[in-house]
Amino acid sequence: MNQLSLTERLGAHVSVQGGVDKAPVRGKAIGATAIQVFTKTPSQWREPSISPESFAAFRRECERLRLSSIVAHDSYLINLASPDRTLSARSEASFVAELQRCEAFGIPYLVSHPGNYIDSRSAGLARNAAAYTRCLRRVRGSVTVLLETTAGCGTALGSTFEELATLRAMIGKDVRHRVAFCADTCHLYSSGYDLVGDYEGVWRQWDRILGFELLLCLHLNDSKTPFASCRDRHELIAEGSLGPQPFRRIMTDPRLAGVIKILETPKGKDGVRADRKMLRRLRAYARAIVLTR
Known about the structure:
The radius of gyration is 18 Å and the shape is globular. An eight-stranded parallel barrel has the order 1-2-3-4-5-6-7-10. The protein has ten helices and ten strands. It has a single domain, classed as TIM Barrel (Alpha-Beta Barrel). The chain starts with a helix and ends with a helix. By secondary structure, the protein is an alpha/beta fold.
């Protein structure tokens, strides 16, 4: 086992077809040391019925396969910033269930897109923060919510570091310690953070406004669209508008060494082969610097 494999926390979003407990072995099949999963169908409101045996099987498989860097992603339907009372209530109930499932599975992190404000940005931020606060108070435990950077589409919150900092600061002080961040490279580039032309500048801003200590997950995705497009279209690593250089730097940046890194790149017809190829590519970037030391 080389030095790289001992320290990396690198993987991909993997399928939970047949049950969430099937995900760890799929992660191992692609050579992942970290995985991301959905704990329910992300495009449906219906909540799954999961047996205690399935929760236990997932925890057992993670232990057997030595997978400790595990992230869940919440449902795409949830909008905790919505001004619509019906949607807001439904979103809160769904997010509470997401937190409860993470606790039961032993998944320490839940990635969440800040909501869409629809009417007023300031009002949306207030609703979003209040909803996160209520949900975290309802589900006591150790699960940390990771607010994800967004691409700046429409009325989505969270496309600037300042807005993410404001949102976290508005969350109740008693549960705020359970809120940190996930940065998506495609979203950053699409929202106007130039990882290609000003890599250091982007991370200096992050450290000044949000702090590296609160960056717990990175979604590694290239972009199908140009810089500052405000569009969320993922591409294979080094094959989109970001190109290889930002990913080479991320994989060799000591400030990001301990951060969980998850691929969400297109899987094509054979997801296993595609993910393996992308992980090999990223590891080659990391290995290049190791070999030159």
